[in-house]
Fold:
Amino acid sequence: MFPELVTIGETMVVLVAAEGHSRYVPRFNKKQEGTESNVANGVGLLGHSGFIGKN
Structure:
């Protein structure tokens, strides 16, 4: 079975300050971002997508 939606793009990593202002915080949380991967993730929750990305 083929997915109904395939996105092609590059997933990015966003570093978010764990607490407080990013200038003074020694620890950051990593989050996956990127328009294509966000769309594929959202539609994937419905069971209808695939994602082609680059490492």
In short: Residues 41 and 49 are 8 Å apart (CA to CA). Residues 5-53 form one domain. Helices lie at 35-44.
